[in-house]
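Reopening this one. Same input as before:
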Amino acid sequence: MIRLDEKSLTLEEFLQYPETQPASEYKQGRVTQKPMPQGQHSTLQVDLTETINAATKRQKIARAYTEIRCIVGDRVIVPDIGIFTWDRIPTDEQGNVANQFNLAPNWLIEILSPNQATIPVIDKILHSLNYGTEMGWLIDPSSQTILVYPAGQQPQVFQNSEASLPIPDPIPPLNLSAAEIFSWLKHR
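Same output, byte for byte:
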């Protein structure tokens, strides 16, 4: 991530700034910009979002959003994929999806980009778990590994595995494995 400003900002000041491409996040007075997504990152992000929405959206169980800005405690995070149960999706006065999400997603998925530092991404997942996120996934395409962080439990490692990945309740089992997810990167 790239630090955008040497000046320390308050959360309120940061929220007045216009959106950036790629998205910017806020932590402890500092603004950092997410890395520009590349081919593998984008492939996994789109395919996972479509898969999750196909299993949950029509039944009004949950909805997956890409690059949604969330105010989580004293931070602003932008998960690669944020999944919210239907009853937690913020709405405006007309019943439309709100523009501002002042809560942590139920489930968040982060996909590492080449040369992206891992520790800040893990920190974002752990912070979200402290604010109500039930599960976080950290996907590393380069090592074909998925780290699953269930709330209140030890992380689990899935690498070249056919085992079904854990999914938080009430989202129905997706029967996704690390092997299947990484097979989406093959372009044949």
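So the earlier flakiness isn't reproducible anymore. For the record, The first strand starts at residue 2 and ends at 3.
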